[in-house]
Amino acid sequence: MNNQLRLTFGRAARIGLIGGLVALFLCLVGIVGVFNKRSLIEGIISLGQFSILLSALGVGYIAAKSASDQMQKGVLWPFLAGILSGFLTGAVVAIFVMIGYRINIRTVFITASPVLYDLLTFGRGPAGIWLLPGVGAFLGALSALTYKTPPWIQRPLVRGLTAVILSGLFAGLVRPLLIVWGGWPEALGRFLFGSTGVTPAGALTTFVVISGIVAVWSARGKAMRERVRQWPPAGQAALRWTFFGLAFILALALPLFSGAFLAQVIVLISINILMGLGLNITLGFAGLLDLGFVAFFAMGAYTVGLLTSYGEYGLAHLSFWAVVPIAIFVAFMIGAFLGLPVLRIRGDYLAIATLGFGEIVRLLAGSDFLGLWLGGPQGVIGIQKPCIGWLGPYLGVGIPRVCNGLELGGPKEIYYLAVISAILVAFVATRLRDSRLGRAWMAIREDEDVAESLGVNLIQTKLLAYMLGASFAGLGGAIFGTLVGSIFASSMQLLVSINVVCLIIVGGMGSIPGVVVGAIALIGLPEAFREFAEYRLLFYGAALIGMMLAKPGGLFPSAIVQRELHVAEEMEEPSDASISVASANLE
Amino acid sequence: MNKKLLTILSLLVMASMILAACAPAATEAPPPPTEVMTEAPVATEVMTEEPVMTEAPTEVVTEEPAAFECTDALGCVDVAPGDPVHVAFWGVLSGADATLGQDSQYGVEIAIDDRGGTLLEHDIQLTTEDGLCTPEGGSTAATKLAVDTTIVALVGSSCSDETVGGIATLTNAGLTTISPSNTRPVLTAPDRGPDYAGYLRTAHSDAFQGKTVAEFAWNVLKVTKAATIHDGSSYAQALQQVFVDNFTALGGEVVAQEAVAKTDTDMHAVLTTVAAAGPELLYYPIFIAAGGYISAQAKEVTGLENTILMGSDGMFSPDFITAGGAATKDMYLSSPDFSLFPAGYNTFVDKYKEKYGTAPLSIFHAHAYDAANIIFAAIEKVAVVDADGTIHIGRQALRDAIYATKDFQGITGSLTCSELGDCGAPVIAVYQIVDSDPTTWNPGVNPLKVYP
Amino acid sequence: MRTTLTERLAELAVAVSLWGFRILVVFVVVAGTILTIRTGKYSGEQWIDFVVFGIARGSIYALIALGYTMVYGILRMINFAHGDVFMAGAFSGYFLTAALSRSGFLDRYPIWTLLGAILIGMGVATGIAIILERVAYRPLRKAPRLVPLISAIGASFFLEYSFRGFFGPGIYAYPPVTILQGEWTLLGIGILRMQVLVAVAAFIMMAILYTIVMRTKIGKAMRAVSENKDVSALMGIDVDRIIVATFMIGAAMAGAAGVLYALMFRQVNFFMGFVPGIKAFTAAVLGGIGNIPGAMLGGITLGIFESIGPALFLDGLGITRPYQLQDAIAFIMLVMVLLFRPSGLLGERLAVKKA
After folding, report:
1. pLDDT digits over B292-333, tens only?
2. Closest listed residue to residue A377, CA positions, set B165, B237, B159, C323
């Protein structure tokens, strides 16, 4: 028992110290300071303060969990463990503040300013330092208690609080949407959200409503689901179709009430879904890692740019619709051109070779050498918007062709183009996956040599994966070009390629819904938090690591990959063939 | 249907009803008259419907049958009593070029402070949006701002690329923006196209800067052979080309035009190539980091020991001396002529230092200050103020008023906007760094103004 | 094996494309060189300068590539964050030298200051690598191959933007160190002292690393782990400990390289590790990944080609602004090596096992 106690508290202490370091990191990296400009609940708590408090809460929860795993029964020990870890978290921050008041560490860490210290000491100056461990202990205790409460209290409580936090985070996004409407949506918007966060009354309402719903649902939800399951199959299908129909109508009407910004974000997400679906073929299905995928995107964008632009570098002044097939075809052929030589390279080496190709395309596009045709750093500008109807004649440099009909001029209109393209391509990708070709790809992914011996033509199959993936990305590039209206080589960064790889992995390799989920998570969320742009990639990096630790199979893993991961775990052996890299049998 | 589902639904409905009922009580303001009317017909409709929708101000409306009616071609912004006048700043606020946008944002904030934060007895609200210094970033930022129909006018963007990406959206939304720091010549060129109707700038066009530099090199330095290096950015590439065109027109010879990448650090090879051409002057109008590498390494390359080095406003910062070290001594930099700025500029810099605890981060803070003030002056000119304090601003009228700005006394000089949107006084000076200690940075002393 | 027409066609297409690629590259190199030399634009001294600058640049690549190649050779994992560990080393060295420069210590004891900076750079880099390994890599050792790669990319962003948060995006520059300025004349060629220092340091570090891997007990264990983790564990090797040691040694190399790099180019910023990281990986592949002398050779070859290539190959062909395509030369070299000699210039040494 004694030994067990020591173990429990030792662990709690360690959790507390780590929590303190995390809080310290948040302070020093400047997140606390920047978040402080946004309030979570107006006039009560800022996002910055909340981020510190959250570390104490989290620590308490983890410590309580670990303690009750250790001791099985009782509330006392987890409770004490929570207090201890929360106390230590607070103490670490307190020590930092104490040092900060004595020594000026701002010459090294630029964010360690008196403003930060005041924030941490609740505006009480050096005297407030002693509060920190106390508050930490209190919060640790609180969340330890929450951990031990029965689920029917805990769940509504936690979900309600989460809802409040989320609505605080998204306040800046949702409020203008509601206010534009006037009438009761505006009243609702003004009631729930202030200009920088949730209003206190709004927070209370959100909490009560959400936790109420959760409470009711957790009490009755199971029974309800059970009853739906007992419906006749036709009824269930009808219900499902109703859902689909509703979602479809919602998607159709979305730009009407969401405003242009949300539409633009969704267009960007759709473009990344297109690229993701493309890479999903090369990487997810056929297992060929491509870190230079932006090259194909660039091909699509530049084709559209050069063939439709009414600016200086416009070649043909065609209509967007005529150019899209050309753009897809160009990307398709470039896929073959770049794919052919590197087909025999395997594994990580392929990643590096394609990374090289991607960079070469970017460098060439931005160079003065090709700048005479591609605009170099000045880019291709004046890209004609898509027009449903017929276009007027080309009149000269700088004058767009008149659209007699409906012009897809802004993000609200291009939304339909992008979303429909994404749905179409997703459909094509699904059919491909289930085709003979798709099975051949997966065979190659699993083991090239076995696939070959089973009669799969390696070169042809791989090349098709490459070319089809490239053409999807080309379509994405085409839509991108017409959305922004101008193309610059500086937009074709390596980061774009990395982003696409990451969104596939985050969504789940080889999974088509996973691509959608990944794109929303990696493209949509950062756009929603534009004001924290400084820290966007920091969160992105942390999220990638966290994702890989928590769900290496992705958020939405495909059934096959899931099975495979499971098998790999059982065998305690990563699929060895995939580790091996380019081999000497190349020549 | 299912009974429990019904319960939940009715709960939801009840909750939303309660919310709706609470709303007026919570805001505690008199029920706001209509907020924003973007189009004339809508505006009139809403006005007539108003007595039905809201109960309180019926008398007011009936008493003033000649209430404001928006006839503006682009619609109007209406600011109800108690609501702020909403302006926005868009520009680069993160990434490597963040100081450029930050500096301009500070300029706008000081302009607001100088008015006591109010305009026509309304508070001024400033929204900022990050354009990331890329066209797609500019596009997204512009779209986000264009959605907000309470915004009257904008200051921005920082980088010319952002403007290229976002200007069409803003112009089509009826907004007008004044950029404090875009210098790319094409933005105010005669063939700039209708999308730029809502675009003006208080910054100089690089068409002037490149010309001044060429004249200085030819007339004052008396060099005949020059070389240029750019970093693949649209700013540097365009500016060095203006210099080359002007320098050759004066009779000089450009012996080499090279380029590096923004992320390059080892410039020895490119400098050796430049040295092979034997220039007397090396002009590299790029940014601080790469400029620092070139300055430091030029001295180490055989053949460039005595070549005169020159940069432009992208490197006009004490950080450049830090980056380039001792080698930056005697270098020339072109920039807006601070000595011609009226006395108001010095007071402005004092306020800047006091408020933000730092010397100006970049060179376009004063231009941003002027841009904001031009907007405020134009709003004051065109706004229609009702008896209850509601103000109405016609978007087209505001745009016209900004274009009509004449002899505006700003802190960068006397500003007159041309019909192509150039408001800035294009007075460029050449400075010389006389001390390689960055703490001595003080434009006019170090670097010392040498031309004109 | 049966061959159908399509299969033969596909084979043909691959062969044609490979030969086309080869011919194109050879043409550019040969024609460019002949045309450039015929213009007589550059003097003999300038060609020597190009080579010297190339060796200096290549030594830097080699310094970073040493750690890269070792980690890859043993763990078969692209440690994307290696460049950022390098950046961390440069940053910590900066704060020490700047502080010592302010107090005047730097001018009195420049050698001690430099040693201190390098040591602190190595220390901080090692510390970061240990945390990184523990948090981001170790739990994923059994996961599919792509998972640790993504985690490493995440770690790379995380490190970069953490440093940006800590120290801001501003410009930091190392104080000038007098003893490193100026040049020495060797055989009539003026060489900057700093360049000599970097080249010598790269050589020494290569020797140390080679000795560690080839001659010590821990090196033997590393090679065993590289061959087969499970069997090594059965042989009584503590695999976790060896992997941590590998990361630590690699990171220490990166930290030292960071300080040397920053002494040479002076400026440090949070993004400085990214491009050198990619270049160093290229150098490692060029030399034969996992091969320590190969990394050195690969780095220097890459440096020389980058330095001389734009002037020699591209200038003569009338390609304007050839230095914009400097990185393209590096990447084309990389692709060439991967295509035609995938085991690199010196061949892979650490891991012989192939698919």
Report:
1. 999 999 988 888 888 999 999 888 888 889 888 888 989 999
2. B237
Q: What is the mean pLDDT of residues A284-297?
A: 90
Q: C76-97: per-residue pLDDT in tens? A: 888 889 999 999 999 999 999 9
- Is B11–A212 a contact, with Cβ atoms under 8 angstroms apart? yes
| Contact flag A530-B129 (C-beta cutoff 8 Å) | yes
- Do B261 and B128 lie in one domain? The reply is no
Q: Is residue C9 part of a domain?
A: no
User: Pairing between strand B225-230 and B253-259?
Assistant: parallel
Residues B170 and B314 in one domain: no
Place of tokens 């031990």: A148
Looking at residues C176-191, what average pLDDT do you find?
A: 80
Sign of the four-CA dihedral A101, A104, A105, A110: positive
Return the structure tokens found at A236: 């269930």
Asked if A574 and C142 come within 8 Å (Cβ–Cβ), the reply is yes
C164 vs A: CB within 8 A: yes
Amino acid, res. A331 = A
Contact between chains at C339 and A342 (C-beta distance less than 8 A) = yes
**B225/B193 same-domain check:** no
Look at residue B60 and tell me if it is in a domain.
no
User: What digits encode the pLDDT tens for the residues C294-323?
Assistant: 999 999 999 999 999 998 888 888 888 889
Q: What is the DSSP code (8-state) at residue A386?
A: P
Q: How far apart are CA A118 and CA A81, in angstroms?
A: 29
Task: Please report, for the domain that includes residue B122, its CATH number.
Answer: 3.40.50.2300
Q: Which domain holds residue C239?
A: 14-36+45-353
d(CA A391, CA A406): 10
Residue B81 contacts A, CB cutoff 8 Å: no
Query: Model confidence over A1-26: pLDDT tens digits?
Result: 577 778 888 888 888 899 899 988 98
Which residue in C23, C339, C352 has the most chain A C-beta atoms within 10 A of its own C-beta, making it the best mutation to test that interface?
Answer: C339
- Nearest chain A residue to C91 by CA distance is A108
Residues B306 and B443 in one domain: yes
Does C197 fall in a domain? yes
pLDDT tens sequence across A207-241 = 889 888 888 887 777 787 788 778 788 888 888 88
- Tell me whether residue B56 is in a domain: no
Which of C346, C106, C130, C107 minimizes the C-alpha distance to C255? C130
Neighbours of A364 (CB within 10 A): 18
- Cβ–Cβ below 8 Å for B2 and A199: no
- In chain C, the number of structural domains is 1
Same-domain check for residues B321 and B374: no
Domain tally, chain B: 2
Question: Do B273 and C311 meet the contact criterion of CB atoms below 8 Å apart?
Answer: yes
| Lowest-confidence pick of B12-26, B264-278, B281-295 | B12-26
B166 to chain A: closest CA residue: A484
Instruction: Give residue B95's domain range.
Output: 85-203+364-421
Q: Is some CB atom of chain A closer than 8 A to the CB atom of C282?
A: yes
**H or E element that contains A99:** helix A76-102
| A318, two tokens | 């065609």
Q: Is the pLDDT of residue A80 over 90?
A: no
The whole-number average pLDDT for the span C114-124 is 94
pLDDT score, position A564: 54
Whole-angstrom CA distances from B372 to A350, B176, B198, B377 are 53, 12, 15, 9
For residue B272, list chain C residues with Cβ-Cβ distance below 8 A. Answer: 42, 46, 49-50, 53, 311
Cβ under 8 Å to B: A residues 514-533 = 527, 530-531, 533
Same domain, B254 and B321: yes
Shared domain check, B183 and B322: no
CATH number at residue C334: 1.10.3470
Banded pLDDT at B35 (limits 50, 70, 90):
very low
Mean pLDDT of chain B: 82
Whether A411 has its CB under 8 Å from any CB of chain B: the answer is yes
Give the residue with greater pLDDT, B78 vs B48. Answer: B78
